[in-house]
Queue: 2 jobs
Job 1
Amino acid sequence: MNNQTDHRIHYQYRNEQFEKMPRRELEAWQLERLRETAGFALRTPFYRKRLKEAGIQSPGDICSLGDLKRIPFTTKQDLREGFPYGFLSVSKEEVVRLHASSGTTGTPTTIYFSREDIRKWTGFVARCIYGTGCTRDDVFQNMISYGLFTGGLGFHAGGEEVGMLVIPSGSGNTARQFRLMQDFGTTVVHATPSFLLHVEAKMKEEGVDRDSIKLKRAFAGAEPYSEDTRRRIEELLRIDVYNSYGLSEMNGPGVAFECQAKRGLHIWEDGYIAEIINPDTLENVPDGERGELVLTILCREATPILRYRTRDLSGFYTEPCPCGRTHRRLFRITGRTDDMLIINGVNVFPSQIEEVIMAMREVGNNYLIEIEKDGVLDRLTVKTEVTPDTFMDDTRPLNALKDKIRRTLQASITINPRVELHESGSLPVSEGKAVRVRDLRPLDI
Ligand code: ADP
Ligand code: ZN
């Protein structure tokens, strides 16, 4: 359901003064916080050197938000080289917690929080949750892994802050998840979109009656997914799904979130400065265009990070949101700059493949993309599950479906893939972020 045109929505704000702050005031607030953050950063050897080179010896050298552009970008590689304490800007006694990125693309990086940092972070997550219409009457089952990953404790604290009853169920074990939902009347869950699809397929398989659970909403994030996948989850589970974006370098969840209009993710500009750059020229692109998201955190003293190249692909909507919030909205994040596959010289993003297959009703809830070498050429195979009610012995409709997927994919990505159909529930499921691509080509060294 697209709520964009629904005028009956009663928008609720956790902190209206900040969420609807006029842009001029918001920018003045950002400048003040940026100076403060630069002050923290100047205490770390990494930024002391970087900022000095950029002519910034003290926070007072930042005169306007435009001066941010004088600061060089920070990359994941910089953070790795600073492991373990290179970016810590307070004494260890002031640190109360650490988190680490899930390491999707290599060695993890560590982020430290002071008590005040945790308080602010929790406030942003609570703002996101409340902005989807949740209240203290809700029962929230956090179906994501706890531990070093920020999605567990981050959402947990935010949910408690809103006053909901929070069930720290963690991810996996669908049978237990259903039981918890039934026993405690869960109304809202948080999970990866791939786990939500898995939950739905399992519900069908195990004969769980939809009417025995009270689920109304889900927060889905931690990995890219298409608008069609959102719609599929909403229709199959009969719930509202809200897109949740965050990354551990920027605290974790609570960076950007959809409001009830469900069109784009408000990035909380009182806590972050967001830029979109062209990843090749490194220049800022105009609003409305796609590019790489660069983020500066304004709400953390223990690990300040300035102009972080997230590698995530997004852009800004230009029109204001019907909810009245003044914070700009990001396009759905379609993947990372380094997700791009080059198959026989053609650039393909996995999100393009997902968009095609998840829009087809006959296709099930899970898929896998494989690339192999076939002589000198690359061969792309797209494996998808079929819906649970498909009869696998009936080859004629299956061949027709295969052909339809192949033709539609070819029209979209200009590559002719091999298509394999698999029984519902037979492709591997990950409890954390889904692994959708298996690149089996030998490395060219
Ligand atoms: P890692 O970088 O090791 O995966 P994180 O756990 O911090 O570590 O994951 C953050 C990353 O997850 C983001 O940079 C982004 O690539 C992805 N991500 C998180 N939320 C979303 C979302 N809603 N849509 C698309 N991608 C997302
Ligand atoms: Zn909005």
Job 2
Amino acid sequence: MTEPVLVAVEAGVQRITLNRPDKLNSFTSAMHALLRPAFERARSDDAIRVVLLTGAGRGFCAGQDLSERDIRAGGPAPDLGATLEKLYNPLITAMRELPKPIVCAVNGVAAGAGASLALACDIVLAARSASFLQAFAKIALVPDAGSTYVLPRRVGMARAMGLALLADKLPADDAERWGLIWKCCADDRLMAEADALCARLAEAPTRTLGLIKRALDASLGNTLEQQLTLERESQRAVGGSPDYREGVAAFLEKRTPKFTGR
Ligand code: LHQ
């Protein structure tokens, strides 16, 4: 049987492909069982310096597989909170706490928790034909898997409200214009651009990138004072790193640095 999530590591890049194309890679429990361990491996394996997340086929991810739950009238009420607690919330937390960059190549529609998954990545590229859909309200659900956290921070409250309440598709070029994602590319350029970005990040000072990610994540909830303290502590940590020495030596010697990620 084909695995619903494919994981491959090459040249410092861990490529994770959601692989249920017939159902637009909508999330099943079996996918969760493969996805979170992939991010856990990315954390512990020094050979992985960047993660690339994408989807097979014409969709990126259509959110929770809606056929996985019994919604017949008179049946027991499904505990969706338990699903979030057991599956989605730990996944999103693992992604944000991963001290390495995650690039997302959104190859098609990202809906419901699929949009949340894309937006939990650090750099989001999207094919021009892709779209982002806060589908939740269409099925009488509240945006989850981090969407209510990310949306107002990226696009402001007015646009976040419109996206969440109206549940209309936001095309990738609007997503770029609104600051929801990093960049929208021509469909046939998406994977080449994502690969090029990952190749660059795989040669970057990984430990430093992890601390940059942590500092920016913390910034919106911190006071200036707290953020200055975090910057001081981060800088103190990387100031003793081999990559910092290499970066400065390479600058002085007018050559390209060779970072090891340490
Ligand atoms: C799907 C799905 C899908 C199953 C397409 N499930 N089959 C968290 C915690 C706990 C529980 C509940 O939820 C959550 C978070 C969530 O994610 S809730 C939001 C769930 N997602 C949605 O409501 C989106 C549902 N999908 C759609 O609205 C459309 O499929 C979109 C707009 C994404 C794409 O539309 P089309 O391009 O027209 O494709 P399609 O609808 O024809 O879908 C293609 C196939 O994929 C189709 O199967 P079939 O066998 O008929 O060809 C769909 O049934 C299947 N599919 N999404 N979420």
